[in-house]
């Protein structure tokens, strides 16, 4: 990596040597009046496709800022193919989930409504804004895509072949998560994965029984204490990344043992799949 | 477990059949005016020593409430002997750390000041209140003890024999945490443990080098992304619990593979320091 640059920005534009990038009003204001940056100051930019680039500020105008991209700092890496399905939580807790799940490297954040989900809608723009901010801060080269919020039943009805859904069960009979992931790895059935974390207060019992019966679902246990939903999200992601994801090989330079397909560009609709975004 | 009781309270008093327990003003107000409980209603109580008991409300007075303990619901269990040393964070983030670390089963929460720690004091009462509330909600039978806040250097200078300190290093050269914990278990050097998570913005480099050289310190890597301090806390605790703690055996009924001494009573002032436990 080249010189340290403190400001990292996620942008939509293509990134290449000499490319111009325009920033919207909010970003322009942030750079100019919060960070007090000026013409000629460097920033780092990434778009989820072209790696990370150095760019310099060309100038500010009324409600805009333009940058010129100068050199690549890092090539695009891959992020493990890991989805997080979660029941929306109250504001504050859901912001937290978006932030933490992004830091923990999920490739898709997918809000699903369970029978007992308390909030019955979700602000996807806000979720995405939190994910973008977290990606900028944690040195990620991508932003998780957002799955279209829908009832859990519908998400499961259109479940894609070959993707295992690990159901984070409440304290109880499920096998410990580390044991399950170790076995999956040893028996070579590892592949694209998803984690499902239920609502505060837990799943409805009959709903839980129905989910657990699905052929692509594997219940996993997260210990003897009752975890809050937001705690369970971080904890389950940490277990997955450390045992099966990109924490296993000492960094992003080595290939994770699970299949890690090229990460779809944030905002770009992935092929197939209950068409999200 | 007996009949479901929604309200769980941590108390200081001894718990035994027929024992009377008084609650302070705040608790009395909460039971009466927030939960709208009345004389004769059942609650569950625990004190970190005597397991969990059913109790019934005898009555309310001006600023107090009294309970009578009736029967034991669960015997006292053990919690893995795991400390968390962390650099105090801003309000909000530190509340979060207390809540999450309690849910994740730490036996001691120990705020330590690193060279770059931003807040230079910590509100131990607030930290403890958050831990108590989390313990009540997550079905724990104990509250983590609070280590006396002190400079990290001093904490390390008096480090007890036989306790491994896992240093959560920022993205870099440390071995992946899952690998380190697996080896520790296989080679039988597992024992009392502690995790150290640095401040937002990371350790000072020379400080980090000095810590890493200590004989009881083992650096562990938490993947290629830069985690916020509060994320690192939950993530590292999840890895430890799932690989070496009480998530490994499917619940609290089985003995964890690491030494799990009788958990010291919460609220009891730890003698000396670092001679704690």
UniProtKB/TrEMBL annotation, chains A, B:
It holds the Pfam family Methyltrans_RNA. Coiled coil: none annotated. GO terms for cellular component: cytoplasm. InterPro entries: Alpha/beta_knot_MTases, PUA-like_sf, RsmE, RsmE_MTase_dom, RsmE_PUA-like, tRNA_m1G_MTases_N. The keyword Iron does not apply. Residues 24-57 form the Ribosomal RNA small subunit methyltransferase E PUA-like domain. One of its GO terms (biological process) is rRNA base methylation. This is Ribosomal RNA small subunit methyltransferase E.
